[in-house]
């Protein structure tokens, strides 16, 4: 049997040490993590500058920019780039302000981008805690994994609950939530006062704080994106469930509104008044538009 006469090239064939990182497709790969190479970041930064110039001179529309920006975020998400993605996402509306009514064609891409812009306002350390919760880790396990106290993790959860990033049912039993709400007279009540009224050793101060934070959120103004997503689930989906074409048209209208007014904030009543009386997004008759369809009523249809 003859042997192949192959020789390794002395310059091109060498052992690469992972502690120095290995370059591959615009990433620098280390043993435990990946980062974007400086060259790759610089390339996108130059592309971003070019798109800004083209956008200002109206050579490119916002729809095309959203598509390219989403593509870059998808590429960057393959590495450990949370802070970097959060930073550039938070700057998107500043770099590409809406100058005239844009044409919304790819609605889903706009919805994804608006969600990322809204999420970029939450601190990194809290998002990291949420990431571990989504992986199924307990509070104690998260604290050990991150080298933090359990009380600090509970503070993160309270903040996430206040910004509607997490449901209370995911971190505590439903009966505890009801018990705490029943024993709370005012959102300004002190934790010790509520704890005395509950008189239940199983319920902790941290759990009471999370429920209070969630209640405070209902009194605060929330972003336009938050209420648009809420409205689509609670109103559009229930009232126009059998009219998919209408729901698709309204989705595009909502994304147009978000791209024009990204910084607007409302209470729930202010948002409903704004949508029903100051916009033409919902085309239902007044009686249907202002009515509320409960989940049970929707299920029985």
Short description:
It is built from 16 helices and five strands.
Task: Walk me through this protein's architecture.
The chain is mainly alpha-helical and 301 residues long. It has three domains: 18-91, no CATH class; 124-219, Arc Repressor Mutant, subunit A; 222-299, no CATH class. 59% of the residues lie in helices and 4% in strands. The protein has 16 helices and five strands. It has helices at residues 38-56, 62-76, 82-90, 92-95, 107-119, 124-134, 139-146, 150-162, 174-182, 191-198, 205-219, 224-239, 244-260, 268-278, 286-290, 295-299; strands at 22-24, 27-29, 34-36, 222-223, 265-266. The strands form two sheets. A three-stranded antiparallel beta sheet has the order 1-2-3. A hairpin with a 2-residue loop joins strand 1 and strand 2. Helix 6 (124-134) packs across helix 8 and helix 12 (224-239) packs antiparallel against helix 13. The longest helix is centred in the N-terminal third of the chain and has 19 residues, at 38-56. The radius of gyration is 25 Å and the shape is globular. The N and C termini lie far apart (77 Å). The mean pLDDT is 82.
Low-pLDDT runs of 5+ residues are none
- The tally of helices reads 16
* Content of β-strand: under 5%
What's the SSE pattern? EEEHHHHHHHHHHHEHHEHHH
Give the distance, in angstroms, between the N- and C-terminal Cα atoms. Answer: 77 Å
CATH architectural label of the largest domain = Orthogonal Bundle
Radius of gyration: 25 Å
**CATH top-level class of the largest domain:** Mainly Alpha
Shape: globular
């Amino acid at each position: 049997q003859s042997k192949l006469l192959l020789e390794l090239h002395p310059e091109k064939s060498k052992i690469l040490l992972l502690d120095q990182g290995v370059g591959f497709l615009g990433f620098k790969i280390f043993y435990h993590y990946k980062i974007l190479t400086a060259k790759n970041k610089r390339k996108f930064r130059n592309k971003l500058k070019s798109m800004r110039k083209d956008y200002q001179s109206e050579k490119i529309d916002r729809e095309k920019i959203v598509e390219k920006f989403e593509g870059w975020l998808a590429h960057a998400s393959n590495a450990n780039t949370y802070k970097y993605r959060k930073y550039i996402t938070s700057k998107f509306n500043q770099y590409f302000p809406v100058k005239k009514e844009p044409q919304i064609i790819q609605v889903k891409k706009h919805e994804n981008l608006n969600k990322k812009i809204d999420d970029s306002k939450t601190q990194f350390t809290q998002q990291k805690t949420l990431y571990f919760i989504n992986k199924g880790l307990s509070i104690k396990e998260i604290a050990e994994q991150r080298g933090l106290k359990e009380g600090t993790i509970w503070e993160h959860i309270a903040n996430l609950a206040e910004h509607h990033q997490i449901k209370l049912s995911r971190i505590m039993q439903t009966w505890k939530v009801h018990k705490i709400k029943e024993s709370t007279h005012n959102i300004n009540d002190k934790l010790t006062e509520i704890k005395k009224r509950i008189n239940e050793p199983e319920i902790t101060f941290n759990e009471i704080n999370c429920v209070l934070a969630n209640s405070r959120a209902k009194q605060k103004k929330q972003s336009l994106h938050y209420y648009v997503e809420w409205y689509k689930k609670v109103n559009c989906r229930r009232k126009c469930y059998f009219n998919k074409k209408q729901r698709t048209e309204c989705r595009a209208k909502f994304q147009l509104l978000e791209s024009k007014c990204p910084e607007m904030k409302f209470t729930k009543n202010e948002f409903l008044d704004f949508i029903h009386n100051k916009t033409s997004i919902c085309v239902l008759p007044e009686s249907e538009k202002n009515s509320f369809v409960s989940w049970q009523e929707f299920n029985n249809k």
